Amino acid sequence: MYDTIAAVSSSGGPIGLIRVSGEHAIAAVEAVFRAKNGKPLSAAPSQKLVYGTLHDKNNNMIDSCFAVCMRAPHTYTGEDMAELQCHGSTALLTQALEALFAQGVRQAEAGEFTRRAFLNGKMDLAGAEAVHDLITARTAEAAQNAAAQVMGAVGSPVREIREELLGMVAHFHAIVDFPDEDIDPILFDDAAALLHRTTTRLYGMAESYERGRILREGVPCVILGRPNAGKSTLLNTLLGRERAIVTPIPGTTRDLIEENVKVGSILLRVSDTAGLRDTTDPVEQVGIDRALAQASASSLILAVFDGSQTLGDEDMLVLARAAGQRAVAIVNKSDLAQQLDIDRIKHHFEHVVYLSAKTGEGLDELLHLIPNLVGLTDGAYDGALITNARQAAALARAAERCEAALYAAQSGMTPDAVVMDAEGAIAALGEITGETVTEAVVTRIFSDFCVGK
Ligand code: GDP
Q1: Would you tell me which CATH number, out of the four given (3.40.50.1440, 3.20.20.120, 3.40.50.80, 1.20.120.430), belongs to the domain 129-208+386-447?
Q2: CB 73: neighbour CB atoms within 10 A?
């Protein structure tokens, strides 16, 4: 049993939600709330909104509001909970919290409600982590994936695999404990079949992280090109508004301009950069250095060339920087007479798109290509994509240990070799659901949460 905690759980809207959880949650809210119907709050049925007024410790009215009590164990945290729906001003909500603190309630720490939900068995650790992803999701698709994971899209299959491995290990333990008895070869065959299936499945889940991370964090992408190639115009066209300054004067964009653009189901975190060229202007040089550094840190380069010009020395800087990275050559200004040596561009780039950033012609092709390039085109965000580095690492470890156990089972090694590796896999899977995770890891996970969740 934990102490009673409270926090503001809404963020800045006209309605403010205060959430209270713990043994004294209902009593504490009852002490600061007068129901209009004159009945004590604790007499109200669970989950029924009650209208009334909120009071400070001197009985001054703070607000008119709704209160609701929710009784354990059917609550988010698994404890008794109560909530107040007040008006949303920070001053008012602070007063309301102080009134609760006067009743012996304390301020909740970051993620403490969800941590309690996990500790009280209301959700597994993978589900709890997905709550954070859900709150911080930047696209509808990322939110959809996270919502499915809150409901167990990662925890359920991991638990299922873990149970299967536990069953297999139990069989092998029987042999390890009675070494004189003959070993049924079917046992090894069955174990090998299970381990083979499981290894494939676990590697598949671990590998989905590459795409899952893109879904959650977006794709860092840089627009590179010589001055006047049309980089800022391209950014503006992608954004559908004037963000970057577009002029015919080379060297206008001197620093990075960063914007988020939704392309299909992915978030492109685009940086427009200073045009690459040799310059004696120290300020412009700083911008160019930043552009080059940003290109190295990006997962995708949009290399813009002016199709109406021949290739120049400045374009060579772009070709050199894009080499070896995931990149698209954009031959811009397709609305003008073309002079660019396309064969040389094609020699350096696997993907070439012809467009006019000015008229928007050809843009659809680019928008179609980008999700394909980063491997995020399917429409089903059912939680199957792993979006969490910790989970991905544990899945990869579990897969490796399963593979080692498979090798042991197939090559006629002693049963305890199979058991040792399978138990390693079981422990790694337990880190995902939370069965075998350390207190320090749990603390770190929930410290990333916001207060009030
Ligand atoms: P940046 O220096 O690479 O950012 O280039 P800007 O986006 O500032 O564009 C430089 C000049 O090229 C401006 O006058 C733009 O209007 C013009 N421009 C950009 N894209 C196109 C295009 O697709 N067609 C034509 N005709 N002009 C363009």
Answers
A1: 1.20.120.430
A2: 11
